[in-house]
Amino acid sequence: MAKKPSPVGLTLFVYQVGFGDCFLLQFQYPAPHPTRHVLVDLGSTASPKNAGEKLLLRVAKDVRARCGGKLDAVVATHRHEDHIGGFATNRTGTAPGDVIASCKPDLVIQPWTEDPAAARDALKPTQTLAAGLAHIAGLRAMQGFASSAVEEARRQTQVGSAVPGRRTFLEDVEFQGLDAIKNESAVKNLARMGRRAGAKAAYVHFGSKSGLEPLLPGVKIQVLGPPTLEQTDIIRRQRERDEAEYWHLQPGGAPAAGSAAELRGPAGRQEIPERHQWIVRQALSVRAETLYQLVRALDNAMNNTSVILLFTVKGRTLLFPGDAQIENWSYALAKPEVRKKLAKVHLYKVGHHGSLNATPKSMWNLFQHRGPKGAARLTSILSTLGDKHGDSLSGTEVPRTTLKKELDAHSELLSTQDMRSKTALVKPIVLDLTAAKWTPESLKIHDAQPLLE
Amino acid sequence: MPQPTHPRSRSLTIVAQDPSVLGADGDVLLSRVDLPGEPLLDGPSGHRVQIVDFDATKALYYPPTKASAEDLYAARAGSELIRERDFHAQNVYAIVMSVVSRFEFALGRRAGWAFPSHQIQAMPHAFADANAFYSRRDHGLFFGYFSSADRKSTVYSCLSHDVIAHETTHALLDGLRPRYTDPSSPDQAAFHEGFSDIVAILSVFSLKDVVRRVLSAKLPAPRGADMVERISKRELTPEKLAALSLLCLAEQMGKEMGIARGGALRASATLAPSKSWLSSREFSQPHRRGEVLVAAVLHAFLLVWRRRIIGLGGSETDSVSLDRVVEEGAAAAARLLSTAIRALDYSPPVDLQFGDFLSAMLTGEGEVLPDDRGFSYRSELLRAFREYGIEPTARGRHALSEGAWSRAPRSLQYAGTHFESLQRDPDEVFRFLWQNRDDLGLEDEAFTKVQSVRPCVRVGEDGFVLRETVAEYVQHLEIRADDLSKFGVRKPAGIGADQQVELFGGGCLIFDEFGRLKYHISKKLLGDRHNARLRYLAESGHFAKGFKPRQGLAPRTFASLHRRRALDLRTQAREAW
Fold first, then answer.
1. Chain A residues with CB inside 8 Å of B550's CB?
2. CA–CA distance from A420 to each of A49, A60, A405 (Å)?
3. B259 vs A283: CB contact, 8 Å cut-off?
4. How far apart, in Å, are the Cα atoms of B288 and each of A154, B263, B446?
5. Domain residues for B492?
6. ipTM for this prediction
7. Residue stretches of chain A with pLDDT short of 70
8. A116 lies in which domain range?
9. What are the tens digits of pLDDT across the range B172-226?
């Protein structure tokens, strides 16, 4: 039997999608072996200035052109609009998701929390997913919660109340809530692509097989997250208490229809007597803040379902953690063998658009290739857009200034925010894999290029 | 002589625990509480609490319940009452007032709120959320409602006795010790939750109906009898008492409200004694740490209950009537509740440690009931706390009993101090402090303020009357982190040289009925404790930029605290940027 081929080159295409993620990995093999393509995420919740109409559609077409109409695999790290929105389809078959589906990926990778088999048949779990049911039930309820929170935030905005900060909270609820729910079509398309005859769907968790190895000979892929419920301490202890308690959000925003109306007594009204006006105003402000906190908790929980992939090819190590935050990371970080591998990372896709808690300090400090300017050092890729999330007053701005400073100081930072051209919206990073070992010269960041049709 | 227009006292129907706890007749178990009478406005609205039925989720206001001198629900079935909006309002009013009354009885004076109003606002159906909380900024108690786990019914937190008692306690504790919500130490962060749980569970336990119901449901009835009437003393070891009543009650408390409460009472009731809990990582998180404090108090409760049963006389093998067992349990719970509440007066106003609270309980008990021979409350408290690794802070020789605070020095100057005004005037108390600042160990560099002066009359179980005046003062110093070393405090790693750091100190002064200082329970402004405190604050993210609330408003601490507790979220500030 012929020896398995190994890649001789790897090009990573970084797309400027504004607030979102989209990466295309292109593995080149010696002839006659075909080039292989893996797409990691396609989504955006805010477009960059001047990017023009239908950005995601144009990006999808560029992906199709570069992979020659055939994707080997699609990775959807987690169910947020800014990561999977571009997988949505439309009736006329002209949406970005239709373009991607036409590339017939052989493998669709998603976190185990998205497994539709377990979700459909929640009472009879498959063995591997037994532990995840509370979580999955939680995830589905979370979608429900997010939509009722958005609905309530919109309604509350109509009710006048001059308490400071209230409106900001409500706006944030809408922005973040929509991120969690505006993607039904994308979710369906991802499942459909995975069900296509000849294709496979992999719902992965820490330590499970990604299914990528047969498609990418000579490349090692490790799944470092998300952990299953049984794998995480914190969640295991929670389960000992009560499964239904876990997400807390589950019954929150969506009480049984008409429940409070079940109570006997006079009907509610909108006029409020003088002596109660102050406290009513306070209650509305309390509610806005509570909704905001709940939606934040939901956002964190969803980010923590992110697939974390570590690619190793010919001694080069690339890390794609989606939006994983510390709670997702902590299981992997506690393992000495994982820490050893993480130490060698050469290219890091910065977690969660550079938010304050998605690049755990204890992980960042592991990276051996961090170094000052001029040295052979780590490359980091930040896909983000400022002024969309959080604020610098409270230290929650995305990207977080202190993190960006650190990335800039100790790695070769490529930020999509710096890709300001109206037309050149994709930047290739070329890794030469012909040499046996990694050298600084073997990685080149090229100028941004226009999108292909 | 003019007659008062309202009764001197009022007895009101309440849900005894929550709607899942049924009586022998299979209906929701009800109870009655006796409250001091007061004229009511619609709401009900009284001089301490006003019920406002506004639903923020729906943005709808429900007209207030008509005030009535009578208990309109005395003859009604529980299953009907829990579906009536007006009854919900009465339930909240009655339970809030009963907790306020318990505080006032134990303290021997009125208990005020932490916000500038005499009346707290309570919203029985504030929003659709599995949460209930007290908010100082909003002068209110907010009770949410949510779907049950099976989604078939709605759970109203305003029908849960322990939830109402818990939230009311947060408000009262905040009124007495406003600095306990300050960032300080793991113990202080845990204390608010732990103390509120203690008051909640002991106030439910002091309702005889509940204890009787719980016990008789657990005990096998003799053949032919509907209900157990007598019970063998051998059945009543602390372990068995725990299994028969406490665990069962904690279980029930978690049943309906588990989603909002995270099963904390159950966790406390089942936490076996161990000296190593407090140093373990698991119990370093504030919302878990409080469980250890609750467990220690509950353990003491069982030990005392057992003593009271033995005290009923007869031999070890005799049986005793169930009614007496119930009465002894309720009495022990009520007494410990008073002890715990009164202890707040003997606790330092800043940087509370669990050991301080133990010393405060022992001191307060000793003052009101100097003779501990009866049921040995003090020695059982000391024993129970020690089994959970909590040692009393007080080690002095000049104390009434082991673990209690030492008496104040006799060398203090009283010349020029006016006894009359010392009982109510903060300026007079400040003058006393000024005069004795060296003896009392005050820091000259700091800003000093007397927060309150409160005269009180405490009545012991045996009718013993004790008159005291309680005053608290706080010392405050704000300096640059780099200047800490001048004051002998180490700057913790990870905070900048220009970071402003606040140091607090302070004490409470207990004057006797002749205006002499009996106790000075203080935390000096400077000292080693700040090393640990600042390290803890740095690690838990206090100095991170994001910690400051928006627009400089006071944070709504308890709303998020309860959510963190229910979700068991951990602080990971060290990992963030």
1. 164-165, 168, 393-394
2. 8, 20, 20
3. no
4. 36, 11, 34
5. 419-533
6. 0.88
7. 1-2, 116-142, 160-164, 229-230, 232-261
8. 9-137+177-235+300-450
9. 999 999 999 988 888 998 999 999 999 998 998 888 888 888 787 777 766 555 5
